Amino acid sequence: MEAVIKTDKLTKRFGDFIATNNITFEVYAGEIFGFLGANGAGKTTAMRMLTGLSTPSSGSATVAGFDVYRETERIKKNIGYMSQKFSLYEDLTVMENIRFFGGIYGLSDKAIKEKSDMLVEQLGLASEKKKLVGALPLGWKQKLSFSVAVLHDPKIVFLDEPTGGVDPLTRRQFWDLIYAATSRGVTVFVTTHYMDEAEYCNRISIMVDGSIKALDTPYNLKREFGVGSMDEVFYKLAREARRSAD
């Protein structure tokens, strides 16, 4: 299997505080890789290093074959990114946002028009395409934001807490969009603190206090820990970490 993300002892320090501590893992082409953990576990810090937004303190990593220290601009051209805060322009219409980001991604005018028309139809937003994005419900904003993040057919898309604050039905619909992207060959790296979403991933890692404490398929982790849900896996790891700290 081709590894499109590789890290080796990747670490980020802020003064005396270690946000991510010697994390080592690989993500394979076409898979959904879940990067799980509680709020403050170091997930977003790790993602910022992998997307070229933050320089590591030590360790090494490549994304889409490019080095996170020396080739951050080439990384950015080969990935999509959706932050945990809504990342489109609320004072532009649906179509204006799509066209704007299509231009940033370097798509031709013809490609932008074709993808814009296709996208609003797929999302059921044809009747809303001239509406300001700020007027859309949060769930529609999130789905539009994801669709724009993969507009240019990137090799990898990074999703940082993409379903935060939306209802369970919308969360399920959002994951349908993720499955559709992977069927086109896009690799998905997703952070979340919703443990039930781990079941949707091919493999997951679980971060506790800046370190990766487990990495495998959801099925194998539940079997290893002798539990029936990913919530229980996480709670066991968290208890072990607290006992170690004491």
TrEMBL record:
Domain ABC transporter: 5-234
Signal peptide (from-to): none
Keywords: ATP-binding, Nucleotide-binding
Annotated coiled-coil segments of the chain: none
Molecular-function annotations in GO: ATP binding; ATP hydrolysis activity
The keyword Lyase appears for this protein: no
Protein name: ABC transporter ATP-binding protein
Origin organism lineage: Bacteria, Pseudomonadati, Bacteroidota, Cytophagia, Cytophagales
